[in-house]
Structure formats: structure tokens, C-alpha cells
């Protein structure tokens, strides 16, 4: 996808393992910066801002708290919906309590937190009224699970589906050729 439209791209992961697996598969010719490999959060964010077509692979704290307005970030990829880890001791205890009270821990605890985190991730792309770009969500659960509606409804614009890489490429070319025509 980066070869189709080389733009500053942030790829958000929910696990370091997945981030590292993807990083290892990317060609060395790509301008990749990876959290945990290429320096501190601030250091790689600054390097990303200065590089015209970088790819930043990140997890955790990069879902929030970084400001990349305008052309500093034009493509955001969300690899997985950011659902909380059920094995976290505090979260697990809250879930157990909800279940004992006859409530659904996923719908009442996990889903609202995941949607909030998802919106925070989307917020990395949309920082000002003038910001524009493209969000690519690779987690099929957003369209295939009933709870995916909560994520879709939280998006600032309607979701346009694509089932293949070729369809995504076509949409990217359309989106960024429109952008070039406007500027």
C-alpha cells in the first residue's frame, strides 16, 4: 500500500508481538520507524514528522497523546480493534463482578473502553478541521461482528468497505489524486 501512495503512515497495533512480526516482514528499503526499536516515543515521533513518507509502527501510548496535524500524518492503519486484555487483574476483577451481578462484562466494560481507545487512535489522523486522510482498519470484526456497529458508529464519517488489497489501492489512488487536484 505504501508503494501505491507513499504518504506518512501510522500503523497502530494492539500488541508488541504483532508489531515486531510486521516490522520483520517489511522490506528494508521502506522508511520504517518502529516503537521499541528506533528510539523513544518523542524521538521517533520527531523523526517521523521530518521524514516525507515514513511509516511509523506503534502500539500502546501512540493510540493517544501524539499530535501529527496536516501532512505529518495522512494514512492511519488500525490493525486490530483495541479491546482490553481480559487477563489484566483489575479488568478481570471488574468483569467478574459484573458477571456476578448478571451484567455482560464485554458489552458493559470492554466495548466502551475499546471504542474510546479506537476514537483516540482515529484522533491521531484528525487533529484540525483542515486535516484529511485515510483510515484503513484491517480487523474484520468491525464489519462481521454485531458489536462492530459500536465502532462504525463512532467514526466521524461513514465507513466504506473494501475486501481486497486491490480495492484498498483503488480507494487510496482516488483519495489522494483528489487531494492533489485540490492543492
Structure description:
This protein has seven helices and five strands. It is globular and about 55 Å long. It is α/β, with parallel strands linked by helices and 183 residues long. 25% of the residues are buried. A five-stranded parallel beta sheet has the order 2-3-1-4-5, sandwiched between helices.
User: What is the topology, as strand order, of the major beta sheet?
Assistant: 2-3-1-4-5
Q: Percent range for helical residues?
A: 40-55%
Beta-strand level of the residues, as a percent range? 5-15%
User: How does the overall form come out from the CA principal axes?
Assistant: globular
Mean pLDDT: 88
Secondary-structure element string: EHEHEEHHEHHH
Separation, N- and C-terminal Cα atoms: 22 Å
| Spans where pLDDT lies below 50 across 5 or more residues | none
Number of strands: 5
Give the biggest beta sheet.
5 strands, parallel
Number of helices: 7
Query: What's the gyration radius in Å?
Result: 17 Å
Structural class: alpha/beta
Amino acid at each position: 500500500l505504501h508503494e501505491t501512495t507513499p504518504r506518512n503512515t501510522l500503523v497502530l497495533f494492539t500488541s508488541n508481538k504483532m508489531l515486531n512480526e510486521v516490522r520483520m516482514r517489511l522490506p528494508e528499503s521502506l522508511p520504517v520507524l518502529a516503537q521499541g526499536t528506533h528510539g523513544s516515543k518523542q524521538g521517533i515521533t520527531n523523526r517521523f514528522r521530518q521524514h516525507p513518507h515514513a511509516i511509523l509502527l506503534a502500539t500502546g501510548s501512540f493510540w493517544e497523546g501524539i499530535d501529527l496535524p496536516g501532512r505529518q500524518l495522512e494514512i492511519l492503519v488500525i490493525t486490530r480493534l483495541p479491546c482490553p486484555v481480559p487477563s489484566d487483574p483489575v479488568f478481570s476483577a471488574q468483569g467478574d463482578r459484573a458477571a456476578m451481578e448478571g451484567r455482560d462484562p464485554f458489552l458493559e466494560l470492554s466495548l466502551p473502553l475499546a471504542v474510546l481507545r479506537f476514537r483516540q487512535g482515529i484522533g491521531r489522523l484528525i487533529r484540525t478541521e483542515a486535516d484529511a486522510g485515510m483510515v484503513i482498519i484491517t480487523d474484520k470484526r468491525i464489519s462481521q461482528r454485531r458489536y462492530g456497529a459500536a465502532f462504525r458508529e463512532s467514526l466521524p464519517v461513514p465507513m466504506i468497505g473494501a475486501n481486497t488489497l486491490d480495492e484498498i489501492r483503488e480507494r487510496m489512488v482516488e483519495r489522494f489524486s483528489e487531494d492533489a487536484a485540490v492543492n
